[in-house]
Amino acid sequence: MAIEIIRCLKDNYAYLVHDEASGETTLIDAPESGPILKALADKGWSLTRVYITHHHWDHVDGLAGVLAAAPAPVYGAKADAHRLPPLDHAFEPGDSLPGGAEVLDAPGHTLGHVAFHYPALKALFTADSLMTHGCGRLFEGTAEDMFNAIARFDALPGETRILSGHDYAQANLDFAARYAPDPEALAARQAELPRLAAEGLPTTGTTLESERRLNPYLRCHLSQVADAAGVPGASPREVLAQIRLQKDNA
Ligand SMILES: [Zn+2]
Q1: Rounded to the nearest whole angstrom, what is the distance from the C-alpha of residue 110 to the centroid of ligand 1?
Q2: What's the CA-to-centroid distance between 59 and ligand 1, angstroms?
Q3: What is the pLDDT at residue 16?
Q4: How far apart are CA 146 and CA 137, in angstroms?
Q5: Residue 7: DSSP 8-state
Q6: Could you give phi then psi for residue 245, rounded to 5 degrees?
Q7: Tens of pLDDT along 185-197?
């Protein structure tokens, strides 16, 4: 199986997951139709289905344009069916989907937000929940929701790649540097990100293992992170809430 990362809009990512054995191709989110249709054409893949992570416009507004050129069934959360584009299949957290993904509940950014885990690919498509070196803003859910979602992800194998919905890596890393990240991992990534930017390469797709060294939202159980957040002795849940609040005000 192969993953194609597609840049859309200003800083969004859409993804194609292609299974060479079956010839099937799944699109994950549709921020903008043009780049997605171009990627399908460049690869010579035909669209089999679409998965949607959440209802925000910058994840669904390209859908109508994609489907007009490449009709395919659309899968989205039953809980959000009323505010998602028309769904052909409504799923619930815990479901296994055609194409090989398992649906993980990931509320916090929005209430119906989900992530797609492909055990066979060792890949987790997190959109605006856990992100590269950060996590999404809490528009609808609570810090507790986000904490629980991230704890679910953290139970996955360390080699799992985290594929998020936006390229916020540089801003997230600058912020993460305040919260006692692993110094070696920080220095390596600080050197790597400008090089990726210069070459126009994606910043998404870091491993869970590397995020555990850098991402403060995966490190809330560490005393040095609680200290850095100004809440020494606080519970991991409280530390996450505090860091997210400080990011909102940064
Ligand atoms: Zn969003």
Answers
A1: 7
A2: 7
A3: 98
A4: 10
A5: E
A6: -65, -40
A7: 999 999 999 999 9
